[in-house]
UniProtKB/TrEMBL annotation:
Matching SUPFAM superfamilies: Kelch motif
Biased composition (Acidic residues): 417-426, 493-531
Organism of origin: Taeniopygia guttata
Location of the region described as Disordered in the Swiss-Prot/TrEMBL record: 1-30, 350-382, 402-436, 492-546
Low complexity compositional bias, start-end: 367-376
Biased composition (Basic and acidic residues): 11-24
PANTHER family reported in the protein's UniProt record: KELCH DOMAIN-CONTAINING PROTEIN, KELCH DOMAIN-CONTAINING PROTEIN 4
Biased composition (Basic residues): 1-10
Protein name: Kelch domain containing 4
InterPro entries named among the record's database cross-references: Kelch-typ_b-propeller, Kelch_domain_protein
Pfam families according to UniProt: Kelch_KLHDC2_KLHL20_DRC7
Amino acid sequence: MGKKGKRDKKGKGAEKTLAKMEKKVSRRAKKEEEDLEALIAEFQSLDAKKTQVIESSCPPPSPRLNCSLCAHPERDELILFGGEYFNGQKTYLYNDLYIYHIRKNSWAKLDIPNPPPRRCAHQAAVVPTAGGQLWIFGGEFASPNGEQFYHYKDLWVLHLATKTWEQIKAPGGPSGRSGHRMVVCKRQLIVFGGFHESARDFIYYNDVYAFNLDSFTWSKLAPAGMGPAPRSGCQMTPTPEGNIIVYGGYSKQRIKKDVDKGTLHTDMFLLKAEGAAKEEDRWSWSRLSPSGVKPSPRSGFAVAAAPNNRCLLFGGVHDEEEEESIEGDFFNDIYFYDIGKNRWFPAQLKGPKAERRKRRRGRQAEAEAAGGEELQLPPPQGPLEIIKEVVAEDGTVMTIKQLIPGAAEDKDRSGSEEEEEEEEEGGALGQPVEPCPRSSAMVAVKHGVLYVYGGMFEVGDRQVTLSDLHSIDLHRMEQWKVLLEMDPKTQEWLEESESDEEEDDDVEGAEGGEEEEEEESSEEESEDEEGEQQHPAVQPGEAQPQYVARTEQYWLRLARGHMGPEAKDKKVLKVAHAMAKTFYEDALQMS
């Protein structure tokens, strides 16, 4: 009894602290939001000039983050709404609506009168009612300088059959927020978590609200049991039984004045509906302890429902804080969670053809018998973690991690002409076509096919916002398909000094623009140009591991020169190997 009473008091104390913090944030944010309301109203007045529905074919959407991507409940279409874009100096917010036609691999823009105001980090969910509905709740609007925020608490529905927007004004809903999660469960929209931020303060939520799609009313749920700590950006998945699974997420705490500490959550919870009453469901939280291989800690991952009673997690980033800098490890892996078995496991690509794998194994056995070079390069038996790094002139490093499944390993480039022709038809010649590692990607599943749109990664202080589109059949899990490519070189980045030009050069070099890189660097950095001319050449028939081992000392000296004497040996070694591998790959492309 004593322990229970102590726990109850602790819970009530936490509720009081949360309420005080919410009032404090609300007071300070009110002034900011009043300032932004005028700007939002100005944008809405422009939208009010739209008087008719116009659907027109168009190029793919411009690069953006934190938009929503949903599969149409009846048609072979994906629906993209809103989002934001930052070019280094200014933040742009959107409220445009795009339709991706899956069969045609083409985009169309839908201009519909009276849309929701511009926003990002909102949530969207589709229901099949009356030809399909797209529901949108919350999100945020930011000032152009990115220093003031307005958090929405409005609810909208897009009637897909009639192509009309409608704002649903129902009292008692969640407070303004972004980074929350919303799913359809039975005939309800369930909203969990999120955060509210002003210029000086922030607050994270772990409350749960339900919106009834029949009565159009909000209700705040009060689940029994100990639920998740406040967070945003978590995984939220409904189960066939009408329960909800919550995994991971991110939150931060104020340690002292102007010092915040972020937390990557890796716990998992089940929100279970108790009882059979339709509108009087009682809910309870319980903690899950899944088996299998869980995703590594990360934020910015994307989630979607998958076939066979599973949900999936894609990509994300793990930020490592070192002294005053933050270094991000980006991912492009897929993890499945089997809802029925309560088990995580990493996805592995099977490769395009089983017969091709047999031929490869046969050639490897022959090569081993003949004592050929392939003896030194046995393929990995399981998934191989590859670390890629882009190194700027000033030593800035972007670290990218990706998992290459062993079955789809592309080490075997010396196959027969027949196999090369087959792979050429696949458009790759053995080159992997998976999405590059990223965070904040948008994902949707239609007919068992996963679509991944956009996202972002970082090179030093530069943010690269993507707008590419990839797909993979979740039933076959053979290989990724590139539906739309993007060249990061074409993306503007505005900053004050020459550092951006150098970072632009790095991106070009990574995409095969080595000649331009050498020409521009020759005008500004003659010493670096001389160093490039003296890089150890790749010898005929030399494999990448052999080249890296033979030239390691050279690249270590070069990396140390870039990074300075205070850099850690382990980090210098990583950078040196990344530089060697990049040079090796570029040399192969140029040959």
